[in-house]
UniProtKB/TrEMBL annotation:
<feature type="binding site">
    <location>
        <position position="28"/>
    </location>
    <ligand>
        <name>ATP</name>
    </ligand>
</feature>
<dbReference type="GO" id="GO:0061621">
    <property type="term" value="P:canonical glycolysis"/>
</dbReference>
<keyword id="KW-0067">ATP-binding</keyword>
<feature type="binding site">
    <location>
        <begin position="121"/>
        <end position="124"/>
    </location>
    <ligand>
        <name>ATP</name>
    </ligand>
</feature>
<feature type="binding site">
    <location>
        <begin position="91"/>
        <end position="92"/>
    </location>
    <ligand>
        <name>ATP</name>
    </ligand>
</feature>
<keyword id="KW-0547">Nucleotide-binding</keyword>
<feature type="binding site" description="in other chain">
    <location>
        <position position="267"/>
    </location>
    <ligand>
        <name>substrate</name>
    </ligand>
</feature>
<keyword id="KW-0007">Acetylation</keyword>
<keyword id="KW-0597">Phosphoprotein</keyword>
<comment type="similarity">
    <text>Belongs to the phosphofructokinase type A (PFKA) family. ATP-dependent PFK group I subfamily. Eukaryotic two domain clade 'E' sub-subfamily.</text>
</comment>
<keyword id="KW-0418">Kinase</keyword>
<feature type="binding site" description="in other chain">
    <location>
        <begin position="577"/>
        <end position="579"/>
    </location>
    <ligand>
        <name>beta-D-fructose 2,6-bisphosphate</name>
    </ligand>
</feature>
<feature type="binding site" description="in other chain">
    <location>
        <position position="633"/>
    </location>
    <ligand>
        <name>beta-D-fructose 2,6-bisphosphate</name>
    </ligand>
</feature>
<feature type="active site" description="Proton acceptor">
    <location>
        <position position="169"/>
    </location>
</feature>
<dbReference type="Pfam" id="PF00365">
    <property type="entry name" value="PFK"/>
</dbReference>
<dbReference type="GO" id="GO:0070095">
    <property type="term" value="F:fructose-6-phosphate binding"/>
</dbReference>
<keyword id="KW-0324">Glycolysis</keyword>
Length: 788
């Protein structure tokens, strides 16, 4: 890794020598906290600092003694996949008192700790900031009481604090996603998917209560992810008379042959007069008004439990490393900060600015300024709410605009989880915009064969949770069949194309763009939404389906590692998909705690393999019981999975034995993750809105004529935003031979994986977060908001 000026930054330059860092978890627990603790400990040790656990949060800091324990590399092994927090968390009344904070300061000074990494909610972080502000006064008191020497005041003059937000509610302003939110969504969606099957059998209505006393994020996003009929959240109470409207909607859905209804309620849901809306009230209302068989399910602490998702592990690991870097760079004048991710970038935000803005949301709700509360939550929250309303509530035919445009939607390439959510979103947004929507079966093969039919609002009901591609998808490219496809476009009067797929979809758009010279039928707006487990499409940092595949890899690796517990030392060699793209192997390796990940983008030779074996052998002798090595399927034509398995088996003989596993197509299957459902829904809705705009712009003399480069685009997530890019401009940044982009953001995560696996490596700090201010108009934190 290198700076823009060409200088390499080695671990020696990130010196923490002589520093002591303590990490604690406080307040409510959240899945992923352990991954953050692990990253802080290992990055702290990597830079030469002493690292301490503070058990039981602030209570442990006040009580001292064995609650403050020096951490070692081995002490955080095997905790990545564990939910909750293994170092414990507790509410502490004593820390709220001056005397309690004085005790805490004394306990920290006894171990020379002046750097605190606090993982918790806004209350925990506010307490940490107060502690920091009082620090010099507390030192003076301790000198006065004779508990510390005078010179300690000079030596430990400043307390440095960095926060990470651990909260399943995602209720902290300034961050895209808090640690634990994605895992909580996984728990909710697992329950909703299970309930939907039984509800369908008996034609029942289910009312589900999810957590969120002051924030409706979980309720809103889970409603979006499962296509719920109604959602109630504290930020946006329903208009007066909502009961009648809700019953009409439920009744209309049943009349439309829908066999079930799902209503999702945040536990803090209120009406316009701030009176609580309870699940029992809704149940009684539905039974009394409609006579539907109605059941209530309160999810409760199920949402806090279970193993962290791949997203939360990666988020927490990146934030943990960033927190240590932030502590190393702080000075006495640096304000306490929160580390977070915005899009794919690390950011540091002043802690109290974030806390104040979070408190403003609650104040707006208390004052019944609900529209303002939604705005303060950020653009992502607003976008979620707007998208939900657009997709869940169908306008009467008389209220719909009439565009007289026909739009075709098709899937191209291999199936990816989330494709169906994207199709549903496109169809419903298209109908809402007044277009007639057509579904093409089996990609361009179905297109030239005429497998095209109109698709209505109700046809895509229940599609969000379905894996694979319900439309059918093929890898066939259009160039060979251009004439037949042009005939079909003319026959069905298709005015725009939405293509959802992987690298083949990108190639298809390039071929159709070229075919415009010969066939006027292709002079229509065309847009592609990336959907592939490989995440190898140029122009987008993320693709629909990649998150589901990562979760499949992570879950399988957890199980495989667990299979060796209690046995002798064992190393597992796992082969992942991805073609020539090493995204799944690298990011899956980071989420599963791999010791190495072999990929095409980072060439390796026999010396590298030998060094890896020796490194793992050394670790096996001294600490760990299980090793994990991932290999991308096309990483090297000679160093195959079998070769690496045999090499490790031979070289590790007497120390560990080996097993190999090819994960194969299980990475493509299964129900889409909440992330992929929402990413597919939101990115596809945005693509359809672009199509509507281009149709108006290019309609002249009674027909659509679009022949400029900017009418054939790819919609991708770039760092902090969703961006439309002409496909022809992306050709220069594409390696067509290996079907990958020439530059890939996730390669910056590889040194991070190596550091957490105890390798000495260079680490590029040029991309680490810089302190920014909370911008009220900055999306929470972008349209992308990591797609959630």
């Amino acid at each position: 890794m290198a700076h823009p000026d060409g200088k390499k930054i080695f671990f020696e330059n990130l010196s923490g020598a002589g520093k002591a860092i303590a990490v604690l978890t406080s307040g409510g627990d959240a899945q992923g906290m352990n991954a953050a603790v692990r990253a802080v400990v290992r990055m702290g040790l990597y830079v030469g600092a002493k690292v301490y656990f503070i058990h039981e949060g602030y209570q442990g800091m006040v009580d001292g003694g064995d609650n403050i324990e020096e951490a070692s590399w081995e002490s955080v092994s095997s905790m990545l996949q564990v939910g909750g927090t293994v170092i414990g968390s507790a509410r502490c009344k004593e820390f709220r008192t001056h005397e309690g904070r004085l005790k805490a300061a004394h306990n920290l000074l006894q171990r020379g700790i002046t750097n605190l990494c606090v993982i918790g909610g806004d209350g925990s972080l506010t307490g940490a900031n107060l502690f920091r502000e009082e620090w010099s006064g507390l030192l003076a008191e301790l000198v006065e009481q004779g508990l510390i020497e005078e010179d300690a005041v000079q030596k430990y003059s400043a307390l440095h604090i960095v926060g990470m937000v651990g909260s399943i509610d995602n209720d902290f302003c300034g961050t895209d996603m808090t640690i634990g939110t994605d895992s909580a969504l996984h728990r909710i969606i697992e329950v909703v998917d299970a309930i939907m099957t039984t509800a369908q059998s008996h034609q029942r209505t289910f009312v589900l209560e999810v957590m969120g006393r002051h924030c409706g994020y979980l309720a809103l996003v889970s409603a979006l992810a499962c296509g719920a009929d109604w959602v109630l959240i504290p930020e946006m109470p329903p208009e007066d008379g909502w009961e009648e409207k809700m019953c009409q909607k439920l009744s209309a859905n049943r009349a439309g042959k829908k066999r079930l209804n799902i209503i999702i309620v945040a536990e803090g849901a209120i009406d316009r007069n701030t009176k609580p809306i309870t699940t029992d009230y809704i149940k009684d209302l539905v039974v009394k008004s409609l006579g539907f068989d109605t059941r209530v399910t309160i999810l409760g602490h199920v949402q806090r439990g279970g193993t962290p998702s791949a997203f939360d592990r990666i988020l927490a690991s990146r934030m943990g490393v960033e927190a240590v870097l932030a502590l190393l760079e702080t000075t006495a004048n640096t304000p306490a900060c929160v580390v977070s991710l915005c899009g794919n970038q690390s950011v540091r935000l002043p802690l109290m600015e974030c806390v104040q803005m979070t408190q403003e949301v609650q104040k707006a709700m208390d004052d019944k300024r609900f529209e303002e509360a939604v705005k303060l939550r950020g653009r992502s929250f607003e976008n979620n709410l707007r998208t939900y309303k657009l997709l869940a509530h169908r306008k009467p035919e008389s209220d719909l605009p009439v565009s007289n445009f026909n739009v075709a939607v098709l899937n191209v390439g291999a199936p990816a989880a989330g494709m169906n959510a994207a199709v549903r979103s496109a169809v419903r947004v298209g109908i809402s915009e007044g277009h007639k929507m057509f579904a093409v079966s089996d990609g361009f093969e179905g297109f030239y064969k005429g497998q095209i039919k109109e698709i209505k609002w109700g046809d895509v009901g229940g599609w969000t949770g379905q894996g694979g591609s319900l439309l059918g998808t093929k890898r066939t490219l259009p160039a060979k069949h251009a004439e037949k496809i042009a005939d079909q476009i003319r026959k069905h009067n298709i005015n725009a194309l939405l293509v959802i797929g992987g690298f083949e979809a990108f190639l298809s758009l390039l071929e159709l763009l070229t075919a415009r010279e010969k066939y006027g039928e292709f002079c229509v707006p065309m847009v592609m939404v990336p959907a592939t487990v490989s995440n190898n499409v140029p122009g987008s940092d993320l693709s629909i389906g990649a998150d589901t595949a990562l979760n499949a890899i992570t879950t399988t690796c957890d199980r495989i590692k667990q299979s060796a517990s209690g046995t002798k030392r064992r190393v597992f060699i796992i082969e992942t998909m991805g073609g020539y793209c090493g995204y799944l192997a690298t990011v899956g390796g980071l989420a599963a705690g791999a010791d190495a990940a072999y990929i095409y983008e980072e060439p390796f030779d026999i010396k590298d393999l030998q060094a890896n074996v020796e490194h793992l052998t050394e670790k096996m002798k001294t600490s760990i019981q299980r090793g994990l090595v991932l290999r991308n399927e096309n990483s090297n034509e000679n160093y195959t999975t079998d070769f690496i398995y045999q090499l490790y088996s031979e070289e590790g003989r007497g120390v560990f034995d080996c097993r190999k596993n090819v994960l194969g197509h299980m990475q493509q299957g299964g129900a889409p993750s909440p992330f992929d459902r929402n990413f597919g829904t939101k990115i596809s809705a945005k693509a359809m809105q672009w199509i509507s705009k281009k149709l108006v712009e290019t309609f002249r003399h009674g027909r659509v004529f679009a022949n400029s480069e900017d009418t054939c685009c790819l919609l991708g997530m770039r760092r902090r935003a969703l961006v439309f890019q002409p496909v022809v401009q992306l050709t220069e940044e594409t390696d067509f031979v290996h079907r990958i982009p020439k530059e890939q953001w996730w390669l910056k995560l590889r040194p991070l994986m190596k550091i957490l696996a105890k390798y000495k490596t260079s680490y590029d700090v040029s991309d680490s977060g810089q302190l920014e201010h909370v911008d009220r108009n900055r999306p929470k934190e972008s349209d992308a908001s990591v797609a959630m």
